[in-house]
Hints:
The protein is an all-alpha fold and 486 residues long. The protein has 18 helices and no strands.
Amino acid sequence: MKHRSLAHNFIVYCMRTLFTGLTPLLIFPYASHILGVAGIGQVSYAQSIATYFEQLAVLGMNYYAVREGAKCREDSRKFGKLVTELLLVNTITTVISASIYIMAVCSVTQLQPYRVLLLLFSLEVIAKGLGLDWFYNIVEDYDYITKRTILFQIVDVAVLLLFVRTERDVIAYAIVLFLPFLLTSLTNLRNMSNRVALFGYGKYSLWKHFVGSARVFAVVVSTLVYTLMDTTMLGYMLGDYPVGLYTAASKLAKMCVQLITAMCAVFLPRLAVYRASGETEKFRDISTAAFNVILGLAIPATVGMYMLSKPFILIFSGSNFIEAVPAMKILSFDFIFAAMNGFLAWQVMIPYNQEKSLLSATILGALLDFVLNFLWIPHYAEQGAAWATLLAEAVIFVLLVFKSRHYVPYERLTKVVWQYVIASLPIVGICWWVKKVFNSAFAQVGVAAVISVAVYVVFLYLIKNEFIREYAKLLLEKVIKRQRGV
């Protein structure tokens, strides 16, 4: 099986990730202005309930399948049998999860006010359960994933503009949120069946894969608890309004985290291959490169989000959400921990079969998050939920660093961390100056972003950051070759 270079995959996946991240940045501001705080809160609460069942449907398959597929993807018969087994397990878990979800929606009294929304999101449960992205990650076909994503996101924005027109269009907004996943599921299944021979392999080992993916799922559940618990507990304890504020505060931070961790997801198949083949040094080299990407993006982004919290809220949510600014300032610091935790968990611990260590860390974080939410939400509402999430992520980060110290060369990263911190300091002054000079929120964010990126890159070059200098050298060599007509 022929595979593209890691550099090509990374560039293509970055394009997909950026497009995926930019689309919600268009959808959410538009929807929040139309639907208001309460409308956004209703949909966010209903979706947070559905998300638990989506993860049950997937059952950790997106990570387990990549790890197992890396071991046999070059053998067409073994690979075909494995894909068939994983598809069968995936289908069974999706049917079970969707059935439990629908029964819960129809029987739990507290959910009845959201019944229509929740039943709609059952389609998202099914679509995500049978998303089958794990197959394309195994074969590293990021070109197909990128083209498909861009097309469906364009369709989704068109549906949003056509059907979400008034504050009563809550149902239409819910459909917009799960429509891309539904389209993805249908096309992925058809495409996969044309690329690998399914069925006809005799006896299948479904139980083995069920147990293996269930172990990964246990980690996913504990992670999901502390990432969604704040929204769920806010809605249950205080109602839709605080949920709407918290959604506005956390939306941008979560999307930025997803952008970075999604960019680094391209490393997982290759890391799994190197782990399976015992190429430890290559594993360490790629994990170091991935960490540089995360730190190099997350640290300046944290500074920028904190300094520009108010204009970000005004742009992406509107003046009705201005009370969300304090919570967004708190969550801006969570950005670094969440991004690094995502990489350590799924790109390092899973390839090394460290589900138990990962589970213990995430369970501790989930328990801490629950206790802090229970204590702080009644008194501090969305700000209490933000502090609980930040502290839970920080504790998990410390535990994961300790447990992964034998797999990741942290000694190589000590120097670059300080380089990224030092290069990010001028962003504070730039954002302060921009807010003094410009009154428009769009101007503040736009001007600050352009100047900050330029100054940040120059600072890294001047303090001799090896990655920036290496990329600058490669770029210069390409320019010279083009001029010489090579």
